[in-house]
Amino acid sequence: MSDTLLRHWMMLRHIPRHPRKIDVAGLAEHLEAGGYCVSRRSVERDLIKLSTIFPLCCDEAHKPHGWSWLADVAVLDLPAMDVHAALAFRMAAEHLQPLLPEATRAYLEPHFQRAHSVLDALDGNTLSAWPDKVRVLPAGQAMLPPSIDPDVLERVQAGLLAEKRLHIVYRRRGETELRTYEAHPQGLVWRDAVGYLLCTLFGYNDIVQLVLHRMQSVEVEDAPRRALPGFSLDAEIAHRSFDFLLSEAPIALEVLLHDFVAVKLRETPLVAGQALELQADGRYRLSAQVADTVQLRSWLRSFGELAEVVAPAELRAEMAATAVALAGRYAS
């Protein structure tokens, strides 16, 4: 393979897809890092020559002039996309799309399409059938995801990425009246197909959660968001647990469980440090320090008669009252 061909190959690999671009100086730096010391004039001549063969475009309206691959052309693989890369792109397209900014999704779309083509063209390669053999299911009752306006999602992601202020028209749960917020985005969290924008509103510093599917419209304003000093998305998630906390302090939970439930908790513990002890009546006593949440109560109720709360006393009384109310409801 000639030295010129290798140099052209390297140039093509460093040219981004429109609307991103790279100028002659940037390409020359990449070539120099790769061991090719050529003048900028030579790079410019090469680009003009390559543009007669490949779908390249030059933005001459702004200086320095920038070169790009056309946005709508198929991906040129240098080297060709192998089956492992194609499989990774295929799985990413199915499972990661809601997590990606719109600009990133648009940039990757040709790669997703190319991955489908590569896998569909394979004959006899077992990896090509992998997407048909793997599924990801929710832990609880399967439910349809909420409907999110694509424009809302795109603009929330754009504002978060560019660190811009957002103008949000929002309908709170159970209300018909629309509210307008000046929001300063700090992070985006997905849980069970529900998207939560973590942000501050107006001039306040308290973090609030706005659910994406309740946003009626979003505009990205030409003003920087107000960042919270020391904000950490992971710390915020750990603090809030994205559950409905009923008290800040954890509780010492003790529950008597049927063996069927105990087996599940041996394999997938409720928390680190839990204890399961066999009792004289054949049940198991679960002891664990857990967060005091609404979700904990829902989880306990899901076992019905297979779980009996022993402690704390307040939670036992609460579960007993629920059982009496249910018995009365079904008796009537």
Features:
five-stranded antiparallel beta sheet; 37% helix; 332 residues; four-stranded antiparallel beta sheet; SH3 type barrels; 23% strand; single chain; elongated; Arc Repressor Mutant, subunit A
- Return residue spans where pLDDT drops below 50 for at least 5 consecutive residues: none
Q: Tell me the total number of β-strands.
A: 12
- Report the order of strands and helices: HEHHEEHHHEEEEEHEHEEHEH
Sheet with most strands: strand arrangement: 7-6-5-4-8
Q: What is the fold named in CATH at topology level of the largest domain? A: SH3 type barrels
Plain-language structure description:
By secondary structure, the protein is of the alpha+beta class. The chain has 4 domains: 3-69, Arc Repressor Mutant, subunit A; 83-132, no CATH class; 150-240, Roll (SH3 type barrels), CATH 2.30.30; 251-331, Alpha-Beta Plaits. Helices cover 37% and strands 23% of the residues. The protein has 10 helices and 12 strands. It has helices at 3-14, 24-33, 40-50, 83-95, 102-121, 150-162, 233-240, 259-267, 294-301, 313-331; strands at 22-23, 56-59, 66-69, 164-171, 178-191, 194-201, 208-211, 215-224, 251-257, 275-278, 284-290, 307-311. Strands 7-6-5-4-8 form a 5-stranded antiparallel β-sheet, with helices on one face. It has a 4-stranded antiparallel β-sheet with strand order 10-11-9-12. A 3-stranded antiparallel β-sheet has the order 1-3-2. α2 (24-33) packs across α3 and α4 (83-95) crosses α5 (102-121). The termini are far apart. The mean pLDDT is 85.
